[in-house]
Amino acid sequence: MIVVVAIIALIVGLSFPSATAGLENVRIVSAGDSVAAFLNGAVNRAERHQEPVELVIAQAEGVLTLHSNEPGFARELKMPEGVSIESVLPAIVDPLWDTSRILDDSGRLGGLIASFTGYRARPALLPLIALVVYWSVVLIFLRRTGGTVATAVPPAVSSSSAVDTVPRAERN
Fold first, then answer.
1. What is the pLDDT of residues 50-100, one digit of tens each?
2. pTM for the full model?
3. Which of 15, 61, 92, 96 is the right S-S partner for 126, CB 3.0 to 4.6 Å?
4. Where are the alpha helices (DSSP H) in 50-85?
5. pLDDT in tens, 118-128
């Protein structure tokens, strides 16, 4: 009987840490699903009612709040116990500036320049970083080759192969 109790205690002792880790995983997945549903609801509200929606993220309190122009509309999502908002990533997809008054990329000249160079009148940070990296690599390769493009030189034609030595009458 003592051996059976010892074996059960050993099994419980070994499985308890993995069971608590599984509970933490379920808690995080549940919180992620709640946040996704909350943000999806915000997008749906903005699209269906055609009105702006404001999302306020309070990191210290672990609360997401949704506001609208409609009087009395406010939604709030509090993170469950043990789950916190560590940081909010910067917006790397928002436009950095707008030069469409000077050169619009949807116009004729702007479209031509945009086609060849990747110019955008309202660039976001991520595509701008990609564009800078691309052109940096292109310039590095051009400097390595000396700025010239390699061309194939046709082989020199020897005089013996260019002149046909067989008379025409014998060709048939």
1. 888 888 888 889 899 998 888 888 899 998 888 888 877 776 777 888 998
2. 0.44
3. 92
4. none
5. 788 888 888 88
Distance between first and last Cα of the chain: 110
Nearest CA-CA partner of 77 in 49, 40, 50, 51: 40
SS3 call for 124: strand
Euclidean distance between CA atoms 34 and 51, whole angstroms:
23
Please give the structure tokens belonging to residue 46.
């903005």
Q: Enter the tokens of residue 123.
A: 């660039």
Could you tell me the CA-to-CA distances from 116 to 31, 96, 112 in Å, in that order?
45, 21, 7
DSSP label of 95 = B
- Percent residues over pLDDT 70 in the chain: 78
Four-CA torsion 14, 20, 21, 23, nearest 10 degrees: 140
- Delimit the domains of the chain by residue range: 2-78, 90-149
What integer pLDDT is reported at residue 59 of this predicted model? 86
